[in-house]
Amino acid sequence: MSLSRARARRSSRRSPSGRAALLTAVALASALTLTACGDSAGKSSGSAGGNYVTGPGGISTVAKGERDEAPKLDGETVDGKSLDTTALKGKVVVLNVWGSWCPPCRAEAPYFAKVSKELADAGKDVAFVGLNTRDNSKQNAASFEENFQITYPSLYDPDGKLMLRFPKGTLNAQSIPSTIVLDKEGKIAARTLAAVNAEQLHKMIDPLLAEQ
Predict the structure, then answer these.
(1) Which of 38, 110, 111, 157 has the most CB atoms lying inside 10 A of its own CB?
(2) How many Cα atoms within 13 Å fall on the side-chain side of residue 96?
(3) CA–CA separation, 13 vs 10, rounded Å?
(4) pLDDT tens digits along 9-57
């Protein structure tokens, strides 16, 4: 047998395992890039003009005086009422993008229930608003709210159209879950693109409550 044929046979015998190793590596790399349930805003850059700072916990903040105006978010809520976020100016507004089908959303829901209740009981000028997306029925969303004792309203946005109202180049919602916090003037002050806990929520909210 010629040397070239022997090499070809050895190469052929190795190729299935080689392909398997390559596929495993690709699958692992893909898994490592999935940090949330899904991409929501699509092509928005989220650069905020380069004037934001992202801390080690993944929370991006914009200094007062450099913030962009938040878009008007309005429509029907999960419980069938009407809501317009522009009517909430004068309060710090916490916008949470979620879906009942999303595991990280379920993981963070108890913290949203806890912190929203704490701040309401303390009489703080904070309004929590959910943006429910990609749920095919309000029933699923309503069951989620009931299970996790979410008492604040959520705009029902199954197609994600409300999230696309955030201007390109602002701290916008790019994943599910996402949390965006508006200052008392209705401007975008903070954002995170991952599930949060109670401590992280306070880090986003408390400095804005203290602003004059």
Answers:
(1) 157
(2) 32
(3) 5
(4) 444 444 444 444 433 333 333 332 334 676 443 333 334 445 788 987 8
- E strand intervals along 49-208: 52-54, 60-62, 74-76, 82-84, 92-98, 126-133, 154-157, 175-176, 178-182, 188-192
Do 139 and 101 contact (CB within 8 A), yes or no?
Answer: no
Q: How many whole angstroms separate alpha carbon 111 and alpha carbon 114?
A: 5
N- to C-terminal Cα distance for the chain? Answer: 86
Strand 52-54 and strand 38-39: pairing?
A: unpaired
Among 101, 78, 113, which Cα is nearest to 196's? 113
Instruction: Judge whether 173 and 194 are in contact, CB under 8 Å.
Output: no
Reported confidence tier of residue 167, pLDDT bands at 50, 70, 90: confident
Residue 83 in 3-state DSSP? strand
Strand segments, DSSP code E, in the chain are: 38-39, 52-54, 60-62, 74-76, 82-84, 92-98, 126-133, 154-157, 175-176, 178-182, 188-192
- DSSP code, position 87: G
Tell me the two tokens of residue 54.
């992202």
- Residue range 120-162, pLDDT digits in tens: 999 999 999 999 999 999 999 999 999 999 999 999 999 999 9
Closest CA to 125 of 188, 211, 64, 62: 211
Q: Are 156 and 76 in contact (CB under 8 A)?
A: yes
